[in-house]
Amino acid sequence: MKKVLAVVLALALTLSVVGMAMAEGKVGVAMPTQSLQRWNQDGENMKAQLEAAGFTVDLQFANNDVATQVSQLENMITNGAQVLVVASIDGSALGTVLATAKDAGIPVIAYDRLLTATEAVDYYTTFNNYKVGQIQGQYVVDKFDLSNAAVTGPFTIEFTAGSPDDNNAHLFFNGAKDTLQPYLDSGKLVCLSGQLDFETVATPAWKSETSQARMDNILSAYYSDALTGGTTLDICLCSNDSTALGVTNSLVAAGYTAANIPVITGQDCDVANTKNMIKGLQAMSVFKDTRILAAQTVTMVSDILAGKIPETTSTYDNGLIQVPTFECTPLFADVSNYQSLLIDSGYYTADQLAD
Ligand code: BGC
Question: CB-based contacts of 51: which residues, under 8 Å, 6+ apart?
Answer without folding.
Answer: 57
